[in-house]
Amino acid sequence: MIQNLADGILTGSVISLGAIGLTLIMHVLRFANFSYAELLGIGAYAALVFDRLLSALAPALAAAFRPLTLTGSLALATVLAMALTGASAVAIDRMVFRRIRARADPLSMVFASFGVALIVRNLITLAFGHRAQLYSNDIAFAEVVSRDPMLLIKPGQVFVLVAAVVLMLALHLILTRTTFGFALRAVAENPTLAQVAGVRLAAMVTAIWLIGGALSAAAGVFYALTNHLSPALGHNFVLPLFAATIAGGIGSVYGAVAGGFPVGIASGLSLMILPSGYTPAMPFLIILAVLLVRPHGLFGEARA
Amino acid sequence: MTASATSSATAAAAPVLEVAGLEAGYARDLPIPQAISLRLARGSLTAIIGPNGAGKSTLIKAIAGVVPVSAGRVTLAGRDITGIRPDRMGPMGLAYVPQTDNVFQTLTVAENLALAPRRTAGRAARLAELYALFPPLAAKKADRAGSPSGGQRQMLAVAMALAQRPAVLLMDEPSAGLSPKAAGAVLDLARSLTGQGVSVLLVE
Amino acid sequence: MIGVISYLAFFATMAGILAIAVLGLNLQWGTTGLFNGGVVAFFGAGAYGTMILGGRPEPGQFGGFEAPFLLAVAGGVGLAGLVAWAVGLLTLRLRHDYLAIATFGVAVAFESVTRNAEWLTGGAKGLRGFPRPFEAAVGDPFLYGLLFLGAVLEALGLAWWGLERLTASPYGRALRAIREDEEAARAIGKNPARLRLQAFVVGAMLMGVSGALYATFYAFIRPQDLAPILTFQLWAMQLYTGSIQYILIGLVIVLMLLWRPEGLLPERIGRRTPNRTAGTAAATASKEATTP
């Protein structure tokens, strides 16, 4: 029970990070982006490549920060991967979504995002193969936090949780302390009024892709750090991210954060009553439950 | 649509805002103004009056760049501003207060106001001026903009519009949904602005 | 020669079966403007429903009722319709893309059931079906293959004819009307939510027919047959395997939407560019993108 809860909170932090950008994109550009979760995959694999490059160039960076398996090169690689993934998100928008929203309806965008997801996922497969990979083959020993009830936690998991919370706090400070943050929240609430108030919408859309891409990359690395990398990484997060977004109300950054944890925890706790094979279906049940009770999300507002 | 424009000041000098043969609107459920022309003198107060659904609102949205213009020209102080992006209207000197949803309810009063003069020079000074102009807003800085009364919300919306020191202020039914007292206060405010050289165009 | 013909017959049979699902997709997406992100769930419901009802009893396995073929198919198709009805009821009143998300979720949930509920679906090893109808009576496999192809084409023709009648009828016009302008359709007394739900269920049942025929043809169904990718193989039929293929499918989708947003099966009457985004951020954002 406690173990499942702890694992669920960890997964929840990854989902929350990933859902922040998705909720903004879904609200401001008004379409369900099925390719968004692939940004987690792009980020995780980009970090892998940067990590290998950096540790080859500067072997001193390859030493791990004990007791973590995290190395200096991976930490640096993660930052680079966040930048690259943000740039990729912007590039995909310029190449595909912006052209389509200029002349077709939002439903075409949904469909196009399916296509983009297929392309990204299979390019990753083509480049890295199907098999699962790890950043480090070091064995991380789990600390026994408690024997009764049994609770095992790896130092890496604690690091991931702390890092995720730090990133969310940083975003919170940007949103509440800077005029850029005010503008971002203004766009999230009412894009048309934001323009009237002098906010350049196209610049904000670019900013949202950059922030969303960067946070997704971090989420992807964090997940891969505590589990493993595989080309299906992004795909496996499609439904959890949507569940967090819908539970939190589309367009609400804080809702996405608040929605991610219940989704992660519910998936973790579901292991106590359901075989692990059913875990992928849990977010779907959450989506159905939310739609039944509060069709516009737990924090959301009515929107046609 | 019949628009009756009544200027309080005589349009002696060149008009600040000139609208010529404007047609706008793209969705079929929007009333579409046809071939509207009007001229606003500096410091004038102009009201457009007409029945509901006549397209008054669409007209000022078109002038503000929120609704695409299909024909005609809008000139502001001699510069053609037809169909430019709404976010570029402010720096050009044209501000617009929408009828509903005209403040960001999830932002605080202070955040709403800080948003508008983001790219205005002398930003801090301008904000201080605005708070001096609207003392009730200064008292509610930290409150969410969704919580003040209708009159104060309208006041905030006008303050946001004034932040960039516009030459022309467009107001869409500023008294709608307000108590008679609050509506009177908003109209008094509009009138006092004309004294400072702002041209006000409002739709009722 | 017979080898070539029977290979072609096999290929044509598969194409015909999947084409029935494409017709269902066209009713949902093309005519009514509903995005179905989980075609495989409805296809799978038809396939598994048919196998469970019509299959032979096996120890430790639910099902195997040996129902007559048409009854088994009807059960599978009914199951597909039922799932579609439940999902549609929950999501069709909401923003357009909730349906896409929910149907995608159905597909994921359906796949986890097929992989894990061994008592019901046989898990990863799949479900063995029943002898194909009349196969023993016909005897000759080559002749049977051609007859099966004939039956599939007949079902396809019937579905196509039915949909043509439907879309040409006042009912079909009402569907297009709600796709183009929901408010206007409501104003002339149409109930958009109910019409959409009906179209969604009918489309899903066609996918169920496709799945039922697929499972019957192979006399076998397993979770791999329902890989989410099948949703898109229905758009671009299976020719190669591997990543490149999927990249190509993705490219086809993206390029099609970039240069041919009216779809694979455009309507004969001219379709205006939809301006449902009027007044929304999407429109203003793109406007901003085009004005310097």
In short:
The complex is a heterotrimer of chains A (304), B (204) and C (292). Chain B is an alpha/beta fold and 204 residues long.
Walk me through what this model shows.
The complex is a heterotrimer of chains A (304), B (204) and C (292). With 304 residues, chain A is mostly helical. Chain A has one domain: ABC transporter involved in vitamin B12 uptake, BtuC (Orthogonal Bundle). Chain A is built from eleven helices and two strands. Chain A has a two-stranded antiparallel sheet. Chain A starts with a helix and ends in an 11-residue tail after the last helix. The mean pLDDT of chain A is 90. Chain B has 204 residues and is α/β, with parallel strands linked by helices. Chain B contains seven helices and nine strands, in the order ββββαββαβααααβαβ. Chain B has one domain: Rossmann fold (3-Layer(aba) Sandwich). The N terminus of chain B is likely disordered. Chain C folds into two domains: 227 residues, no CATH class; 53 residues, no CATH class. Chain C is built from 13 helices and two strands; from the N terminus they run H-H-H-H-H-E-H-H-H-H-H-E-H-H-H. Chain C has a two-stranded antiparallel sheet. In chain C, helix 1 runs antiparallel to helix 10, helix 2 runs antiparallel to helix 3 and helix 3 packs antiparallel against helix 10. Chains in contact: A-B, A-C, B-C. Chains A and C meet through helix 3, helix 4, helix 7, helix 8 and helix 9 of A and helix 4, helix 12 and helix 13 of C.
